[in-house]
Amino acid sequence: MERPILRLKNASIYQGDSLVLSNVNVEINKGDFVYLIGKTGTGKSSFMKTLYGDLPLQEGEGDIVDFNLKTLKESEIPYLRRKLGVVFQDFKLLTDRTVNDNLFFVLKATGWTDKEKMNARIEEVLDKVDMKTKGFKFPHELSGGEQQRIAIARALLNNPELILADEPTGNLDPQTSVEVMEVLQEINKNGNTILMATHDYALLLKYPSKTLKCDENKVYEVVQRKN
């Protein structure tokens, strides 16, 4: 039996001194596509931040991609993030450099040195998100949907074991949201595990999958009704 990629047991999630979520029990296995839903302010972002080491796990147990969140040291956070791909709502692309240079920057920062391999990897991930011809462009020359595709490509660079997508369609119109979702679905079909925080319920209906809900300081699985 494979170990889960993410496991939280009786975990409490804090933002500073405020308890945001208590008694969280969650397991995500390799290849899963899981939604995290809930109204604004119910703890979705705090949940995500705890997973990539932005907030410390103060109570309970937590393992993610073979890292123990409870004992995670500051010095280990960069290594944890290399095994995760994180996609944000606001893209977080470097505006002063091209798409290729954005991706090159990440590879360099995560220890790649062979230029030929770096270029090949960049081409590979851009191909996966259907943006192979856009590498020479600057972020401001791309639409919101295209920028989010680049952000997804960036998340894929180091073959992450888990992709955390925090409201990846939050700034996009409905049609573009569907296009970005198609990219994520395709990546998931290729074996990548994805946890996606969203408040876009239309996507949940169109692409039903395991769903966790944050509500009243708790996280629980929502059983989706079959039509």
UniProtKB/TrEMBL annotation:
Residues 6-225 form the ABC transporter domain. One of its GO terms (molecular function) is ATP hydrolysis activity. Keywords: ATP-binding, Nucleotide-binding. GO terms for cellular component: plasma membrane. InterPro entries: AAA+_ATPase, ABC_transporter-like_ATP-bd, ABC_transporter-like_CS, ABC_transpr_LolD-like, P-loop_NTPase. PROSITE patterns: ABC_TRANSPORTER_1, ABC_TRANSPORTER_2. The keyword Transmembrane does not apply. Transmembrane segments: none annotated. Gene3D superfamilies: P-loop containing nucleotide triphosphate hydrolases. Belongs to the ABC transporter superfamily. Part of the ABC transporter FtsEX involved in cellular division. Important for assembly or stability of the septal ring. This is Cell division ATP-binding protein FtsE. The lineage of its organism: Bacteria, Pseudomonadati, Bacteroidota, Flavobacteriia, Flavobacteriales.
